């Protein structure tokens, strides 16, 4: 690590409260001798808000992060902003710490009102780093040539491109065919993504420390079309069949996409790098799940309803 400590900052691009909260944080850490780094696309926005840091050379822009040069990426936004930050931090394996200014914020660690505490934790490095499984995704055309590759933090989703046509796919697990589906698409999700698109598609919630890959067919016309939880070392191959296949599009985390031609194969396996999330407290995932989804642990009728039901039983 260089003598000068550096923290990277990612900010929701259009929320004024995100910029205000981030500027407050960056000012506070700068006063304690820590420099900050932002993406070039956010430079003008941040530089206008923090001219003193620019003049003092305590703030710079960089399109890439180097392992060991930046110790942490602090993200001010929701889960979507964290996924954007993951594109910056994934390969150099820099931990992400999220400050929630979105709606659910499953991956975020604390709320915007807790910036003072955040500064102290960052300066003292009083956080633990949690590793999350990621996915490696590649596409080969009908000739077997690789035409596209990416990674996924939440999920890789193969979806039909035209409403009037289903996709005809053959799914292989560990290089053995398992089922052929006419469907709207197929999701391959991480445990982190199990509370995102996969959850909306009817897949199970997986605890983030589970080492597994989740496969979720989308509106498949088949007797066997259930979600499946696979080994973390499994490989999922999805063939878009000829001649009945419609056109498809492949998305990774809803951010990176490529059009898929009939006859192509999409392959998904465990990613080469984990996602690193910084945690300030050892909050159990059960607590986070109840809080973020506002689960009714007291029941829909509440205490009064339970008392009434007890009186009726008596």
What would the keywords be for this entry?
Tumour Suppressor Smad4, 8 helices, alpha+beta, 314 residues, Rossmann fold
Short characterization:
With 314 residues, the chain is α+β, with helices and mostly antiparallel strands. Helix content is 23%, strand content 34%.
Write the layout of secondary structure elements.
Elements lengths: L4 E7 L4 H16 L2 E5 L4 H7 L1 H5 L3 E3 L10 E6 L1 H11 L6 E5 L9 E2 L3 H10 L3 E5 L2 E6 L5 E7 L2 E6 L6 E7 L2 E8 L1 E5 L7 H4 L12 E6 L9 E3 L5 E5 L7 E5 L3 E5 L4 E6 L4 E5 L5 H8 L9 H12 L1
Parallel strand pairs: 1-2, 1-4, 2-3, 4-5, 5-6
Antiparallel strand pairs: 7-20, 8-9, 8-19, 10-13, 10-17, 11-12, 11-16, 13-14, 14-15, 16-19, 17-18
Descriptive overview:
This protein is α+β, with helices and mostly antiparallel strands. The protein folds into 2 domains: 5-132, Probable inorganic polyphosphate/atp-NAD kinase, domain 1 (Rossmann fold), CATH 3.40.50.10330; 135-270, Sandwich (Tumour Suppressor Smad4), CATH 2.60.200. It has helices at 16-31, 43-49, 51-55, 79-89, 115-124, 197-200, 285-292, 302-313; strands spanning 5-11, 34-38, 59-61, 72-77, 96-100, 110-111, 128-132, 135-140, 146-152, 155-160, 167-173, 176-183, 185-189, 213-218, 228-230, 236-240, 248-252, 256-260, 265-270, 275-279. Strands 3-2-1-4-5-6 form a 6-stranded parallel beta sheet, sandwiched between helices. A 6-stranded antiparallel beta sheet has the order 9-8-19-16-11-12, with no helix packed on it. Helix 1 links the parallel strand 1 (5-11) and strand 2 (34-38). It is globular. The model has no long low-confidence stretch (mean pLDDT 90).
């Amino acid at each position: 690590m260089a003598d000068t400590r550096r923290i990277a900052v990612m900010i929701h691009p259009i929320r004024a409260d995100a910029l205000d909260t981030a500027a407050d944080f960056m000012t506070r850490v700068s006063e304690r001798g820590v420099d900050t780094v932002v993406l070039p696309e956010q430079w003008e926005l941040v530089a206008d808000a923090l001219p003193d840091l620019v003049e003092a050379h305590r703030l710079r822009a960089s399109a890439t992060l180097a392992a060991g040069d930046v110790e942490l990426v602090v993200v001010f936004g929701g889960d979507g902003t964290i996924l954007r930050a993951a594109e910056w931090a994934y390969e150099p394996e820099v931990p992400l710490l999220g400050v929630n200014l979105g709606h659910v914020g499953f991956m975020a660690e604390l709320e915007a009102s807790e910036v003072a505490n955040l500064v102290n934790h960052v300066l003292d490095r009083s956080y633990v780093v949690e590793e999350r499984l990621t996915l490696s995704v590649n596409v080969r055309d009908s000739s077997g040539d690789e035409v596209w590759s990416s990674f996924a933090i939440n999920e890789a989703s193969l979806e039909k491109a035209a409403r009037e046509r289903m996709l005809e796919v053959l799914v292989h697990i560990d290089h053995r065919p398992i089922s052929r589906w006419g469907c709207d698409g197929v999701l391959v999700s991480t445990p982190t993504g199990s509370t995102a698109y996969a959850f909306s598609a009817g897949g199970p919630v997986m605890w983030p420390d589970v080492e597994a890959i989740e496969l979720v067919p989308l509106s498949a016309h088949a007797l066997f079309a259930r979600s499946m939880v696979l080994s973390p070392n499994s490989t999922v191959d999805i063939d878009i069949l000829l001649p009945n296949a419609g056109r498809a599009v492949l998305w990774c985390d809803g951010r990176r996409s490529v059009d898929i031609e009939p006859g192509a194969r999409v392959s998904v396996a465990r990613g080469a790098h984990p996602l690193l999330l910084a945690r300030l407290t050892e909050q159990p995932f059960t607590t986070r799940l109840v809080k973020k989804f506002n689960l009714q642990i007291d029941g829909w009728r509440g205490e009064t309803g339970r008392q009434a039901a007890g009186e009726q039983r008596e």
